[in-house]
Amino acid sequence: MKKFPREYCGIFGVYGHPEAAKLTYFGLYALQHRGQESAGIVASDGKQVKEHKGMGLVPEVFNEQNLNDLTGHIAIGHVRYSTTGSSILRNAQPFVVYYLGKTLAIAHNGNIINAYRLRRQLEEDGAIFQSTMDSEIIMHLWVRYFHLGIEEGLAKALTKLKGAYSLVLMTENTLIAARDPLGFRPLCLGKLKNGAYAVASETCALDLVEAEYIRDIEPGEIVFINDQGLHSLYVPKPSRCAHCIFELIYFARPDSQIFGQNVYLFRKQQGRELAKEAPVDADFVMPFPDSGNYVALGYAEGTGLPFEMGMIRNHYVGRTFIQPSQTMRTFGVKVKLNPVKELLKGKRIVILEDSIIRGTTCRTRVKTLRAIGVKEIHLLVSCPPHRYPCYYGIDFSSRGELIAASKSIEEIREYLGLDSLHYLSMEGLLRSTNIAQENFCLACFNGDYPVSLEKDFSKDWLEK
Ligand code: SF4
Fold first, then answer.
1. How far is CA 111 from the centre of its chain?
2. Which of 120, 286, 302, 379 has the fewest Cβ atoms within 10 angstroms?
3. Closest residue CA from atom 6 of ligand 1
4. Which residues are designated catalytic?
């Protein structure tokens, strides 16, 4: 059973390395937590562009043979969890198009909220689409402005988009990285020892390929890297940013630095803030692994309570597993985490969790703990209640999916079967970071959407 919300996409690119595709393979490996449905790499030797994509995890899609075939010094790659477009190979990325003798490729993380209107206009103008992805719209817009030049044309195309995008693109001889003007999703630039450049969703991917982190791609920046070196164009941007705070809370790997902040240290500080807001008299503190681990460490440090790993994770659970019948279904929920009965029986415990979206998984876990005789269960959540949907690439896009949209905190506590429940306050959350409040998107907590929604926006429009 997948935890909800699920990850979405990770992107990676290399320019200037003789085995660019193999580096990209490792980069995608490091970003696997951002998408497990499909993976793909496109590589170029300056003349010829080759691609390989497939459904599944990075090591399931790639082998020595198909990586050896992806020759060249430029490559881009993508791991995907679908935020628009269904989960089929046709929608796997990078997406490659051919136009006026040129080969162009794109890999996209984020969600374009005016996609419906843009696609409708393009189709009425005669454009034919192969997929249901936002990314294909960007390619259509780009080639429409080719008369301005490849670089200026892309800049013009990006001004038409509303919403969240971090992109890597390539032509036969250029690697391009771009980020939306509000900087919703992370994207960083690194340099390898041989002088090659790497671009990645998160710095953990730079670490794996031994690229030194140089800087983040700025919101609104488009970076072009080719045999002339590196230069940038900028699309107009507002005075503020809208970094997705949920990247720091949940999505990004703890060893990454995103938005100029280390994720591990941020999460530990959340735990310390929770210790100030909600100290509990208990025997020990434990996380729901893995996402609650670092908050639990911070809470233990802040309260002086012992830290224990009361539930053990099965690291070999795949993306999906077969649930052959109703009677087997309960095993499915339990397969990922198993409690250490001898440690937990008769104890008063504090559990740290990063978020409660629907509450169904959490409820099952609490029931399991009660069944083995845990005396008291206090749950602390490291962010405020999720009351509003996300339209910028995170998969909780209707209020009906959010338990806190319809229930009070007391009702949630009762539904989950807890002795107490506390959510970190917005003030506590913001105190955990060194980034100013106005530079975050906090819309799923407070309903204040940094990019207004199109009237006709619907996540499912392409599926109809
Ligand atoms: Fe991130 Fe929430 Fe904003 Fe979506 S609404 S981009 S999940 S902070």
1. 11
2. 120
3. 244
4. 9
